[in-house]
Amino acid sequence: MKIVVSGLLFLCFLPVYVSAQIGWTEHIIDTNFMFASWVFAIDLDGDSDTDILGTAYGDDDVVWWENDGNEVFTEHTIADNFDGAYCVHAIDIGGDGDIDVIGVATEANRVAWWENDGNENFTYHALTPLLNSAIACYGIDVEPDGDVDIVASGYYTGDIVWWENDGNENFTFDTVGVGFIGPWGLYACDLDGDDDVDVLSAGVYVNSIRWWENDGSENFTERLIVSGFSEARAVYAIDVDGDSDMDVLGAARGMNRLSWFSNDGNENFTQHIIDNNLLYASAVFATDLDDDTDVDVIGAAFYGDEFVWYENDGYQTFTRHTIAANDTGAAAVYAADVDSDGDLDVLGAASNSNEIAWWESDVIGIAEGGHYAVPSGHLFPTVISGSIRLPDGRAFRLYDIAGREVTSVTRAPGIYFIVSGNVVIQKIIKVK
User: Fold this and answer.
1) 354: which strand partners?
2) pLDDT tens readout for residues 339-369
């Protein structure tokens, strides 16, 4: 649509809710990936596009799919006998500039990593000791001392552990916490803003989400985020409300719930329910999907067979949207710019469909959308706070600065344009 500029009109305004819309196009990576359990995305081969990793619990496989730059994916096996392969993560462990892979094998009670030689030939390294019913893993510099350590959890024993990297990939085992039975969800970050890495976990059998505070010397103290969170299955942390501290998100499959927990800055957490109808909620992730500078949420419903996203209006009121609704056993979610077009796409693993897939977002990025030339003339902005209001009595549309139409009460701060026909009649700067 070509947009031209008219003079400033003086209009009567009425409030209207505006909401971004994202269309999703499904792309199947694999439909024969037995009991697909995990999905992750990163540029594994250093060619400036996004590759995909996954685990197949039923096939004992750890696999990566190479992106040729045009989203044609070639499958490569990292391991095909990793008994009960469940979780996978990828990061540069060796500090040599290429991406290595970390995984857990639940049936083998094993945590391991695969060293990338720079040409995507992977050498297996088993960590010791064994971790009973290993279920989750994550690579991060725990101390931090400039190298990547490995954090993992064991399902039946409730052990949360880590291996310290000495900088030469010699790993020393240590414990974060014990007796937290069913720690299916695992994440690590600096939750309390003191420049060391803390550990979070969601416990299925203890119906809670907890975190272990690092004192800076890797002595960990267990802290409660929420109890009574029935069959807590997944956990993630990010600054949801933009107040410069880390909040927490969780999925509770026993109550079909997705929630976020606001941090008051002193690690006192308050629960805010996002959805009470995400059937057997199995996964949660959060990022700015619609490019409006606030944090949206993605979830998976294992028995609901769906992947969904929740649009944040900038004030932490979330609107539910469906990404895909026929993925039986939706188990894991992630988001990354798979097609390098400047917006974030969604990836998912569906266990009962034996499927790894990604959904292409149609949010217009800089590379896709180009720009509209503004002809001669002046369009002076209106600066507002609170709800955006559209003129009464005529057909008007509202667009954000990226050229996307927004259609539903309040939006995040930013620049917006009111359009009548193909003419921009008003520019709005929303400050809060």
Assistant:
1) none
2) 999 999 999 999 999 999 999 999 864 344 4
Q: Token match 């305004």: residue?
A: 13
- Report the amino acid identity of residue 427: K
The answer to whether the beta carbons of residues 11 and 396 sit under 8 Å apart is no
> Residue 421 contacts by C-beta under 8 Å, 6 or more apart in sequence?
none
CA 405 – CA 398 distance, rounded (Å): 6
277-296, pLDDT tens digit by residue? 999 999 999 999 999 999 99
Distance CA 183, CA 179 (A): 9
CA distance 169 to 163: 10
271 by Cβ neighbours in 10 Å (0-12 / 13-18 / 19+) ranks as middle
If we measure between CA atoms, which residue out of 117, 121, 128 comes closest to residue 93?
A: 117
For residues 290 and 276, the answer to whether their CB atoms sit within 8 Å is no
Q: What's this model's pTM, rounded to 2 decimal places?
A: 0.83
Q: DSSP string of 246-294?
A: -EEEEEEGGGTEEEEEEE-SSS-EEEEEEES--TTEEEEEEE-SSSSSS
* CA–CA distance, 241 with 262 (Å, rounded to integer): 8
> How many CB atoms neighbour CB 29 within 10 A?
22
Length of the chain: 432
The strand order across the sheet containing 257-263 reads 232-238, 247-252, 257-263, 269-275
Q: How many CB atoms lie within 10 A of CB 308?
A: 24
State how far the Cα of 208 lies from the Cα of 224, in Å rounded to an integer. Answer: 8
Rounded distance, CA 305 to CA 326, Å?
6
Round to whole Å and give the CA distance between 234 and 295.
18
CA 288 – CA 298 distance, rounded (Å): 10
DSSP summary character for residue 372 = P
- Strands (E) in 155-197, as ranges, are 159-165, 171-177, 183-189
